[in-house]
């Protein structure tokens, strides 16, 4: 018997930065698709998905205008909690039964992300019970930028730890959910991709080869045996978090490592280890969990 720690990350050092959740005048955004694309390009993004409410903006219509890789997106919005449809080819019917919507997204070849769980005055846009019942989604938004100026909490790592603590294997995404220029470049995903093509970026996202960030840069996440090591450019503190949000270690350094307990039962009880990397000004990066089995 032995315990293994499985990380989604590769040793490959190439990272690409992008946002998968942005609105335009096609739904309730203030700027046209052209303006939104130009804004992200100017800021040095590598990929972008426009994801209007129940409306599809075909990436092919705009790919000629930008060096960024455009990815198809829709925010499935009417009739229930919002679901990001990534790698969309067309709009799926926003039916009240969200499992039916997720199944339709998957049938189309896309993947689903449950959006801004802690939005609204009751901090419960996406009820936890529904998240726990739904199946077949790739992850949840653990940070949603526009909620900084709306009711509720932009941060939703609490929801993530509850799902991970049940044994669910879902990834944490960070997005702007930009509706106007002030919402841009609040939160993003940095993907370990083989190349700049949409196919490679989407594969990396599905496999969890990315981290979510509001400003801290991660250089490397490595697993060797039962040790996970995180190297960043600019974190001042790194925390390793396990089952149901328990902080296992805190290190005040841009690089840190955590080794599972030698006792196998104790190690297994942690279920997963993920890192939160805190930098200046409240910035943070969240790595995906390494799972213990
Ligand atoms: Zn939404
Ligand atoms: Zn949105």
Describe this structure in words.
- The chain is 17% helix and 31% strand.
- Strand 11 (218-224) and strand 12 form a beta hairpin.
- It has a 15-stranded mixed beta sheet that branches. Strands 11-12-15 form a three-stranded antiparallel beta sheet, with no helix packed on it.
- The chain folds into two domains: 14-213, TIM Barrel; 218-292, Sandwich (Immunoglobulin-like).
- It is α+β, with helices and mostly antiparallel strands.
- One zinc ion (ZN) is lined by residues 21, 23, 75, 177.
**Largest sheet descriptor:** 15 strands, mixed
In total, the number of domains comes to 2
**Low-confidence segments:** none
Could you give the order of the helices and strands? EEHEEEHEHEHEEHEEEEEEHEEE
User: Judging from the principal axes of the Cα atoms, what is the shape?
Assistant: globular
Structural class, from helix and strand content?
alpha+beta
Query: From the coordinates shown, what is the CATH architecture of the largest domain?
Result: Alpha-Beta Barrel
The end-to-end distance, rounded to whole angstroms, is: 10 Å
Number of strands: 18
Quaternary form: single chain
At the fold tier of CATH, the topology name of the largest domain is: TIM Barrel
Main CATH class of the largest domain: Alpha Beta
Strand content: 25-35%
Tell me the helix content. 10-25%
User: Mean of the pLDDT scores?
Assistant: 97
CATH superfamily of the largest domain: Metal-dependent hydrolases
Tally of separate helices: 6
Q: Which ligands are bound? A: zinc ion
């Amino acid at each position: 018997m032995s315990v293994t720690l499985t990380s989604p990350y590769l040793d490959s050092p190439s990272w690409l930065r992008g946002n998968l959740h942005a609105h335009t005048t096609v739904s309730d955004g203030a700027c046209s698709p052209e303006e939104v694309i130009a804004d992200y390009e100017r800021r040095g993004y590598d990929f972008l998905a426009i994801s209007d409410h129940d409306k599809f903006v075909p990436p092919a219509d705009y790919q000629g205008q930008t060096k960024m890789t455009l990815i198809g997106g829709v925010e499935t919005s009417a009739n229930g909690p919002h679901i990001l449809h990534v790698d969309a080819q067309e709009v799926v019917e926003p039916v009240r039964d969200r499992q039916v919507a997720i199944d339709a997204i998957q049938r189309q070849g896309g993947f689903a992300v449950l959006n801004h769980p802690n939005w609204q005055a009751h901090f419960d846009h996406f009820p936890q019970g529904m998240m726990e019942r739904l199946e077949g989604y790739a992850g949840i938004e653990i940070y949603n930028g526009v909620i900084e100026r709306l009711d509720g909490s932009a941060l939703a790592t609490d929801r993530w730890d509850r799902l991970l603590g049940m044994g669910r294997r879902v990834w944490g995404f960070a997005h702007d959910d930009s509706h106007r220029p002030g919402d841009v470049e609040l939160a993003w995903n940095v993907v370990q991709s083989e190349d700049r093509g949409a196919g490679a970026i989407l594969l990396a996202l599905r496999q969890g080869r990315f981290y979510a960030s509001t400003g801290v840069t991660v250089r490397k996440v490595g697993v060797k045996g039962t040790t996970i090591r995180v190297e960043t450019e600019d974190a001042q503190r790194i925390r390793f978090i396990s089952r149901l949000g328990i902080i296992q270690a805190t290190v005040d350094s841009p690089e840190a490592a955590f080794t599972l307990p030698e006792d196998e039962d104790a190690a297994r009880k942690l279920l997963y280890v993920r890192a939160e990397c805190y930098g200046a000004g409240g910035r943070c990066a969240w790595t995906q969990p390494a799972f213990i089995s």
